[in-house]
Amino acid sequence: MIYKLAYFLLLTLVNAQNESLSLYEPSIIHEYTVKGHQGVPGTLICHRPLHFAFRALYHLSGGETRKDLENRWNSKWPVHAYMSAFEWPKSWGFRTLLVKPMEITDSAREALENVSELETMDFTKTQESVSEINERVQLLTSPMVDKVLKKRNLSQKTKMVSISAGVVEVYWKYPFASENTGLELFNGHFGEQGEERVAMIPTMRQYGFNYTYAQLDDGEMLLMPLAGSDDVFFMILLSSVVYSSQDSKPVKFVMPKYGNIFDLIKKGSSRLVDVKLPKMKYSYSVDLVPKVLPKMSLNNLLNEDADFGNLSSTDDLRLSSMLHTSAIDLDERGINVAKNSFILNQDPNNNYEPFTEFHVNRPFFFAILDRHQVFLSGEFTGPQ
Predict the structure, then answer these.
(1) Can you give the CATH number for the domain in which 64 is found?
(2) Is residue 156 located within the same domain as residue 184?
(3) Tens digit of pLDDT per residue, the chain (384 long)?
(4) What range defines the domain where residue 202 resides?
């Protein structure tokens, strides 16, 4: 197997139709993963490698299967698989399509150039191949990511496995002063019996800067600028609190609706903000088969009628698993940045105007995005 380190060029998507992954699919994926995986700190999606994974499936599909993918991940989009290490925000990752041993057409390999690796794997002899794939995922993304491919994903019935992984590296435009970091209460999602989940976690604090803020119908939004571009932000959508009518205690946190998060940006205005933000460090893995893809109206990828005739003339080809993993390490300097990097702390404005308090002490949605595309998104529901 060839080791290849690919830097993805982050594309500007040109219209809402072609932004379907950035706009709508995250809400479907998060809705499932948050409800189905309460034991983890939260969900996480690195969009570029997942986008390329869908592109690979599109290029190899035909018939009704291709129609399902049409206008989402179609061949009309320009392909720029590599980016300079100096592009910002930096994004890198790994993606491959594993298929059972078969005759693969030359046109299929050509179609996947710059989109994905294409490899054959005997799914009945797993241990060595599983270890090798996971080592490559960690090598080409981050040592933090989960071992995304597990033996339980493979069997004699396995036909095709899509794997994607990615991380984004970016600095804060205004780094947090480490001396302002301390332990603060965080109210996690309530348990199955309605019990509170409260923990003390390291929390950063920053005040004296003007950020874009909005009070939403179902929560609050803050846009924190990131280094390297005036148009790239870290978005936080803070959940609202539902209180008991009997004793006024919180009984539920409601995440803001974020189907079209680009429209939310327009709602904000500049405010002087006192922000408290938890430090986060976790990885997340998910298999979009079988529950998520049907919600995205992509049943034709999974059933016996799947058409991957552009890959091979072999019958009975269908997608068995679609695995994705990502990791986040958020601290005073930025997200997934080298710990020995030196960034000069910015002095806050000596401004005595009233502050808007934005204390992130309960579940929230977050994203790295510009005004056209999402690079990374997730939800943090609280420490394990």
Answers:
(1) 3.30.497.10
(2) no
(3) 333 322 222 222 222 233 334 434 555 666 665 554 455 688 899 988 988 899 899 999 988 888 888 766 544 434 443 333 446 678 888 999 999 988 888 888 888 888 899 999 999 888 888 999 999 999 999 999 989 999 989 988 899 999 999 999 999 999 999 999 999 999 887 666 666 788 999 999 998 899 999 998 888 999 999 998 888 999 999 998 888 777 777 778 888 876 678 888 889 999 999 999 999 999 999 899 988 888 888 888 998 889 998 898 777 889 999 999 999 999 999 999 877 655 555 555 555 567 899 999 999 999 998 887 888 989 898 886
(4) 172-279+339-380
94: region left, alpha or beta (phi > 0 left; psi from -120 to 50 alpha)? beta
* Residue 41 in domain: yes
Query: Does residue 330 contact residue 368 with C-beta atoms inside 8 Å?
Result: no
Cβ neighbours, 10 Å, residue 230: 9
Length of the chain: 384
Residues 58 and 154 in one domain: yes
Instruction: Please tell me the distance from the alpha carbon of residue 306 to that of residue 319, in angstroms, as a whole number.
Output: 8
151 and 255 in a single domain? The answer is: no
CA of 13: how far to CAs of 165, 180, 222, 360, 365, in Å? Answer: 21, 38, 23, 30, 22
3-state secondary structure the chain: CCCCCEECCCCCCCCCHHHHHHHCHHHHHHHHHHHHCCCCCEEEEEHHHHHHHHHHHHHHCCHHHHHHHCCCCCCCCCCCCCCCCCCCCEEEEEEEEEECCCCCCHHHHHHCCCCCEEEECCCCCCHHHHHHHHHHHHHHCCCCCCCCCCHHHCCCCCCEEEEEEEEEEEEECCCCCHHHCEEEEEEECCCCCCCCEEEEEEEEEEEEEEEEEEEECCEEEEEEEECCCCCCEEEEEEEEEEECCCCCCEEEEECCCCCCHHHHHCCCEEEEEEEEEECEEEEEEEECCCCHHHHCCCHHHCCCCCCCCCCCCCCCCCCCEEEEEEEEEECCCEECCCCCCCCCCCCCCCCCCCCEEEECCCCEEEEEECCCCEEEEEEECCCC
